[in-house]
Amino acid sequence: MEIELKSQSDDEIVFIVRDAEVPFINAIRRCAMVNVPKIAIEDVNIIRNDSAMFNEVLAHRLGLTPLVSDLDALEGLSLPEDDDWGEYSNGIMFSLNEVGPKVVYSKDLISSDSKIKPVYDTIPLVKLKEDEVLNIEAVAKVGYGKEHAKWMPTTVCAYKQYPEITFNEDVEIDYDCAQACPRGILKSDRRSKKIKILDIEDCAMCKSCVRASTNGYINVGYRENDFIFRIETDGSMPPKEVLLKACEVLGEKADKFIRFSEEGGSK
């Protein structure tokens, strides 16, 4: 198996995996979405809420506010499988005490741990009118995406098989089929008498060009064991950390099956 990094930023990573199989690639995708620990607000104690927003809606918005959840932030915190995870005091405390008129933003959340705070400062939570009071206490805990979307570190976690475009040299060149590509990755070059492929990796394999070709000049397929993988996060964790943790979790699951088999299925 070969891996080629195409691009990487603070919240997105794109890489190519060659000589792999769909079940393996899909296992990494699922682990990245639902088995990587992340911090999110779990318990909300609304002491006073004079706004027009229902308590349940406000608590839901707080839970979906991305919090910094990198490796440093997660260190020392209880995981859902730990016995003390459910204790109210065992988490990161947040407080919110505001008086209107104003728009309350995520930056107004005060954390008991300076490392763990909202990723973005400008997420609007609620609008307070004149003299309206909002007083909230909340606790953030570590969780997994398989339990709730608020603990899912990825906003995009997807792969596609590597596109492959071929031309039928036995028929006349159909220059017009290139115009049907919605992403503009095909270019008709009448001077060199061929159709150029500008960016094969951007191909969505929609086959618009195939349907537009009247003589079957162009064919769109994919390489069965090559994949383009993309992970995008909500900013709470670097995408590289998400990928590494997902691979670690997948490895642990594989090791558990191996031990189970070696022990004769006794445990």
Mean pLDDT over the residues: 93
- What is the distance, rounded to the nearest whole angstrom, between the alpha carbons of the first and last residues? 32 Å
Nearest-angstrom radius of gyration? 25 Å
What sequence of helices (H) and strands (E) makes up the elements?
Answer: EEHEHHEEEEEEEEHEH
How does the overall form come out from the CA principal axes? flat
Q: Order of strands in the sheet with the most strands?
A: 1-2-12-9
Q: Residue share in helices?
A: 10-25%
Q: Largest beta sheet, briefly?
A: 4 strands, antiparallel
Count of DSSP helices? 5
Structural class of the helices, strands and pairings? alpha+beta
| Unreliable sequence segments | none
DSSP strand (E) fraction? 35-45%
DSSP summary, beta strand count: 12
Record the SSE blueprint:
Blueprint lengths: L1 E7 L3 E7 L3 H13 L3 E12 L5 H9 L7 H4 L17 E8 L2 E4 L4 E2 L12 E5 L4 E11 L10 E14 L18 E4 L4 E4 L10 H5 L5 E16 L5 H24 L5
Antiparallel strand pairs: 1-2, 2-12, 3-8, 4-6, 4-8, 5-7, 9-12, 10-11
Helix pairs in contact: 1-5
Brief summary of the model shown:
This protein is an alpha+beta fold and 267 residues long.
Structural summary, described in words:
This protein is an alpha+beta fold. The chain is flat, with a radius of gyration of 25 Å. The chain has helices at 22-34, 55-63, 71-74, 208-212, 239-262, and strands at 2-8, 12-18, 38-49, 92-99, 102-105, 110-111, 124-128, 133-143, 154-167, 186-189, 194-197, 218-233. The two termini are 32 Å apart. The strands form 4 sheets. The chain has a 4-stranded antiparallel β-sheet. The longest helix is centred in the last third of the chain and has 24 residues, at 239-262. α1 crosses α5.
